[in-house]
Amino acid sequence: MQFGSPRFKNFQPPPPREVSPEDGLLLIDKPAGPSSHDVVGAIRKRFGFQKVGHGGTLDPGATGLLLILIGRGTSLSNQVMGCDKRYEGEMLVGTETNTQDLEGEIVAELPYDLVTIDRLREEAAKMEGDIFQTPPMASAVKVGGVPLYKLARKGKEIEREPRLVHIYRYAITEYEAPVAKFDIICGKGTYIRTLCHDLGQAIGCGACMKSLRRTKCGQWTIDAAIGFDAALALTKSELIGRIIPMHRVK
Known about the structure:
- By secondary structure, this protein is an alpha+beta fold.
- The chain folds into two domains: 90 residues, Pseudouridine synthase (2-Layer Sandwich); 133 residues, Pseudouridine synthase.
- 22% of the residues lie in helices and 33% in strands.
- The protein contains seven helices and 15 strands.
- The strands form three sheets. Strands 1, 2, 3, 4, 7, 10, 11, 12, 13, 14 and 15 form an eleven-stranded mixed β-sheet that branches. The protein has a two-stranded antiparallel ribbon with strand order 5-6.
- Strand 5 and strand 6 form a beta hairpin.
- It is elongated.
């Protein structure tokens, strides 16, 4: 049937749905401890929002910028997850774990006496640009529909397909043995703990991530975020006043 037929002569499309002040993006400074899912659940329950999500997971032990999507803002999930991100943190040189961070079990401890900041910087610089990165077993990447971390909990390790990621900056800012501080700017899908692990492999004595803080995601920076506990202490109207409208999300 053609739209020019009498049946559709008086057809009027429905009016566009009005965007609510509750639809948009909330910037949270996540503390160490709660998972990203915990933060989402707490905000949903405390303020009674129907739909709440996030724009990129932070591990429970990591801190920093977590983008909370509220209402129709949840439709922006793919857009904000694809943003470039910036992190600062520390790695422990000479120590390897089964999770590539200090949350896991130590599997090797090697001498790091000959490691210098110049050597760390030299090897880190080689990882800038487009690189292939193998996701860690302790990750949410799915193989055959099963998250890798569930297999890891059963003591299993399987082959993982390397993924292409982009590293804009991998800077070692300080080194006081055995702790190296770093500043990383990267594209989506990058595992920072794997960058620490791989740098350890390159210098020959291993390394694992000690701490991590996300400081920027796309156009948003940590200094514009509100602490998680402080957010929960607000009234609903006060919290809504901090929501970034959808039209401001580029």
